[in-house]
Design a protein that fits this description.
The complex is a heterodimer.
Chain A: H1 2-22, H2 29-38, E1 40-41, H3 49-53, H4 62-69, H5 72-82, H6 87-92, H7 96-104, H8 106-110, H9 112-123
Chain B: H1 3-23, E1 28-39, E2 42-53, E3 58-64, E4 69-73, E5 78-83, E6 88-93, H2 103-108, E7 123-130, E8 133-139, E9 147-155, E10 158-166, E11 171-183, E12 186-197, E13 203-216, E14 233-234, H3 237-240
Parallel strand pairs in B: 6-14
Antiparallel strand pairs in B: 1-2, 1-13, 2-3, 3-4, 4-5, 5-6, 7-8, 8-9, 9-10, 10-11, 11-12, 12-13
The chains are: A mainly alpha, B mainly beta.
Chain lengths: 140, 241
């Protein structure tokens, strides 16, 4: 009987201790709710362009301008017919040496790289911006 | 090289590069987000329909505010903002708004051990156990010289609390992650409460609640492939001022 009481007390103590710690890194949601309930709704946040232009670090994107000019279909067609020569990379924009690496490596490591470029361009045809002006040999 | 070996090398190389692409396929996540910000007893509420394409890392948000707008962000921080009412479009590059700096990206891709701190240049200083919590302490990069330390607290492997400490040992920010729910391949806190302390002693409380989370293998909503109309006019800089 004595052992049972001791065990129950121990379990209660452990449970109380864990409950006390459980609140250590959690917020009092009731108090937060109360604060929001009593607050006055002013207006909906308008995170429009004016917010961004107020930030001096914000600049227009030259990449985006390029993205508008480059056509995924053209890049895919060039890759299909002339991928081994790296013509699609010159079209998308890259370092001269990167483009030359295709013919210098037997058509981009025996055609593997242009083949993967081809697949990646098809998969990402909606947004090819990561591949524009990409200086890496493996553009994906 | 023997042509047979060359052929085998080609096949294995293609399989090696193609499988990770396929393994990532089918990760379209949509949800509703409600964010309330409280300052000086004034409350601002924003409701957002959020769409995250985890293949292309493109996040599309439809803001429902006094002036509805749709914002599309990619991993480079290139932001396209479209205002349907006036058929206007704006292009910007804001690295802070990159899809890869959004909390959703870190939770969906199970990068919950640092929630972006490692990508921002923070380095892990120490870690310890405190009851059921696992605690990590991160030191900031040199550029953030006002910040002394970031403490992250994990429970059952997921972050429940973050604390940003200034060099004067004052707490700058506390973030609580609560109400975790399991989804296919990831867990997401359905409620995030952020308390930022101003030098004056006042605080700004932000409460974000996610709901209607949907995970799909197909882009079942047009927002995943949102296209700005070709006849949209650019927003003039005068209007932005």
């Amino acid at each position: 009987m004595k052992n049972a009481i001791t065990l129950i007390l121990l379990i209660v103590a452990v449970f109380s201790f864990s409950q006390a710690n459980a609140g250590k890194y959690s917020v009092d949601e009731g108090a937060i709710d109360q604060l929001f309930t009593t607050a006055t709704e002013t207006s909906m946040i308008s995170m429009n362009a004016s917010n961004f232009s107020a930030n001096p670090s914000v600049v227009s994107s030259p990449l985006m301008a390029n993205a508008k000019e480059k056509d995924a279909v053209v890049a895919i067609v060039l890759d299909f017919f002339l991928g081994g020569l790296g013509i699609h990379r010159f079209y998308l924009g890259t370092e001269t040496l990167t483009g030359l690496a295709y013919p210098l490596t037997c058509g981009g490591i025996f055609g593997i790289v242009p083949l993967i470029d081809f697949v990646v361009l098809i998969i990402n045809n909606e947004d090819i911006s990561p591949f524009i002006d990409n200086p890496k040999f493996f553009m994906w | 090289m023997n042509p047979v070996f060359k052929f085998i090398f080609l096949i294995f190389s293609v399989l090696f590069f193609c499988f990770p692409v396929n393994a990532q396929s089918g990760r379209y996540i949509s949800m509703k987000q409600k964010t309330e910000v409280l300052e000086n007893k004034n409350k601002l509420t924003t409701k957002i329909d959020l769409f995250f394409d985890n293949n292309k890392h493109i996040i599309t948000k439809h803001y429902h505010s006094s002036r509805d707008f749709i914002m599309v962000a990619n991993s480079l921080g290139e932001i396209k903002t479209y205002y349907p009412e006036k058929n206007e479009v704006d292009f910007k590059q804001i690295s802070e708004l990159s899809s890869k700096r959004n909390l959703i990206y870190y939770f969906v891709n199970n990068l919950t051990d640092h929630l972006g701190l490692a990508d921002e240049g923070f380095s892990l200083e120490s870690s310890n156990l405190e009851d059921q919590y696992y605690i990590t302490n991160w030191s900031p990069p040199k550029l953030l010289n006002e910040l002394a330390n970031v403490k992250m607290v994990f429970e059952n492997g997921f972050p429940v609390y973050s604390e940003y400490l200034a060099i004067n040992e004052k707490i700058l920010k506390k973030i609580y992650y609560a109400n975790y729910r399991d989804f296919e391949r990831f867990r997401l806190p359905m409620k995030i409460i952020e308390i930022s302390y101003k030098p004056s002693g006042d605080s700004i409380i932000s409460r974000t609640v996610f709901s209607d989370v949907n995970v799909s293998s197909v882009a079942d909503n047009s927002y995943f492939n949102f296209k700005i109309p070709e006849n949209a006019k650019p927003v003039s800089t005068e209007k932005n001022k």
